[in-house]
Amino acid sequence: MKIFYSLALLIYSFKTFADEPLSEFYKNFKSGLYQKAIESLEKIEIANNSLGSKYYLTALSYSKMQEYDKAAQYFEKALSENYEVQDLYYEYGQALYAMNELKKSRDAFAVSAKKNFNRGASLYYVAHISQILEDFGNARNNYLEMQKISDLDFKLKQVGKFQLAESNLSILRQKNITQVELTKAVEKVILPMLKEALLIDQKSPASYDIKNRISEIEKEFDLDPNLLRNGRRISAKRFTAHALQRLKFDDNISLTNEENNVSGSFRESYIFDTELFMEYDFVLKKKLILSPSFRATLTQHSDQDNAEVFQNDSSILNASLKNKYEHTANSNPAAFSFNIDFSRTLKDKDQTHNRKFYADALTFTFAEQVTYFSFGDTNFKLKFKDYSAYSSSLNNYTTSFSLDQTVSTRFMHLIIFLLDYSTTDNYNNSSTNSNTLLFRTDYIIPEIAPKYTLSFALSINLTDTLEQKTTRGTEWSLNPSMDFSKDVTENLKFNFNVDYTKAHSKSSSYTYNKSVFTTELKYSF
Fold first, then answer.
1. Residue 21, pLDDT score
2. At what angle do helices 51-64 and 2-13 cross, to 10 degrees?
3. CA angle 66, 71, 75 (to 5 degrees)
4. How far, in Å, CA of 102 to CA of 95, rounded?
5. 275 pLDDT exceeds 70?
């Protein structure tokens, strides 16, 4: 549009000299018939003081035909006639750039920028050509001038910021500084500048080049914040949070009188669980990850008439601190964890529709994750829990040791084997002490269909009731389950679960069957 506007002014300025040929030129130029446009100009006889206009229009026509050598000749003729038009030096610079006459092209764009014609693009060409010529100081100065233009096009602003960072990096490489000093400058100056450029428009074509360049530089200088020293890659997302709403149907609500003492009520109810969770990962020295988290869970039963059911209404507040030290073992990434977890439970223990303090639990967990086998990770965990209830008779210490092994199949399915041994010491009521052995297997099929995951699990639980063995014997339970989930959106996930439990004991009070059907909506932030 700018070219046609200039043409209209030029044609008007010497219309009296050759009205018909100029009209023919304009028609041919507008139609893309540039050779005929040039022939139309050759027919025009004009006064010497208008030769610059004729040369300029001829040059434009040759530029459109990509005959840049001839275009440059006519632009030079127009300049020799002292002809002035706003875009002359810019168009001349374009022709010279296409001919690889870089220094002359840079000079032309510099004049165009000085005359404030398409200043942002003119400065960009000056800077870009300076980069090609390895004149990085000049490139940096012109990219900086670009950033000062208040109404600069966002795409040009982003590319300019990107190349400003590249120019500064090239200048740093030429300086006589140590690798440590260079790395520090890259971390403090270059990478932040590239990230500023990326934030201008994260969906532009240039944004993909910027992201790739950030990754390349982080890799070159060992500054990738998501690549730990042991080679393990972690998520770039440090803060995670979710809100969860769960609806269950339980056909046999459990009665939990003690932490390890479960029986069936033979009553059914819907259960509503609402959960809020948040966690932040602090990564220190690319070796240590500190992850404080908070969780709040509210549980409400639909049956508010039967005390055996609604006494299980609860509110649980949980705060934890996960501490993970990343290292290597057997030349593979490994991790040692030490976690502290505190929870407070409020329950309707008095069956008055009023939740009161029920118990506090403080848990310490030590874990080691290693890769002994090519098919998956191995995890060892040692856990100590101090459970303090409203009644001292329920207080207990639980010590657990668990081992789990992940197996990745050739079909990209996962199998997880878990073995857990726990001892519970009810130190104020030893008759309820117990030892428990749990074996569980999970089979997970990711992407059984796009965005769908299917998993199956089976657990077997054996409980040695110790002092109650004569009346309860060795109790066991069988617990198969199925889980089906779908990623509805990037942040929203739907889950459906079916869970069946068959519990057996010498005492009929602890023998029961139950089925739980669960639907869940989870929104992650």
1. 65
2. 150
3. 150
4. 10
5. yes
The full set of domains in the chain, from first to last, is 2-220 (1.25.40.10), 239-524 (2.40.160.40)
pLDDT number for residue 23: 81
Structure tokens of 397? 């210490």
Q: Are 160 and 150 in contact (CB under 8 A)?
A: no
Give which of 140, 115, 111 is closest to 128, Cα–Cα. 140
pLDDT digits (tens, 9 = 90+) for 29-88: 999 999 999 998 888 776 656 788 889 999 999 999 999 999 999 999 999 999 989 999
User: For tokens 């199998």, what's the residue?
Assistant: 415
Residue 76 neighbours by CB distance under 10 Å: 16
Q: How far apart are CA 440 and CA 244, in angstroms?
A: 26
Q: In the block, which residue shows the tokens 């004991």?
A: 505
Give residue 44's pLDDT. Answer: 78
Q: What is the DSSP letter of 252?
A: S
pLDDT higher than threshold 50 for residue 16 = no
| Sign of the alpha-carbon dihedral angle for 386, 390, 391, 392 | positive
How much is the average pLDDT of 277-300?
97
Q: What are the pLDDT digits (tens) for 440-479? A: 999 999 999 999 999 999 999 999 999 999 999 999 999 9
Residue type, 5: Y
Task: Please state the separation of Cα 521 from the chain's center in Å.
Answer: 21
Tokens found for residue 210: 């910027």
Alpha helices in 31-178 (DSSP H): 34-42, 51-64, 68-80, 88-98, 102-114, 119-132, 136-147, 154-174
Length of the chain in residues, anyone?
525
Which of these, 406, 328, 329, 324, lies nearest to 367 by C-alpha position? 324
- Pull the structure tokens for residue 147: 């950033």
User: Is residue 200's pLDDT more than 60?
Assistant: yes
Cβ burial of 52 (10 Å; 0-12, 13-18, 19+) is buried
Is residue 184 classed as helix, strand or coil in its secondary structure? helix
Looking at residue 74, its pLDDT comes to 95
Give the residue among 240, 265, 245, 242 at the shortest CA–CA distance from 254.
265
Give how far the C-alpha of residue 281 lies from the chain's centroid of Cα atoms, to the nearest Å.
14
Which run of H or of E encompasses 442?
strand 434-449
DSSP assignment string, 58-89: HHHHHHHTT-HHHHHHHHHHHHHTT---TTHH
* Pick from 437, 469, 446, 443: nearest CA to 457: 443
Q: What is the C-alpha to C-alpha distance for residues 374 and 97, in angstroms, rounded to an integer?
A: 56
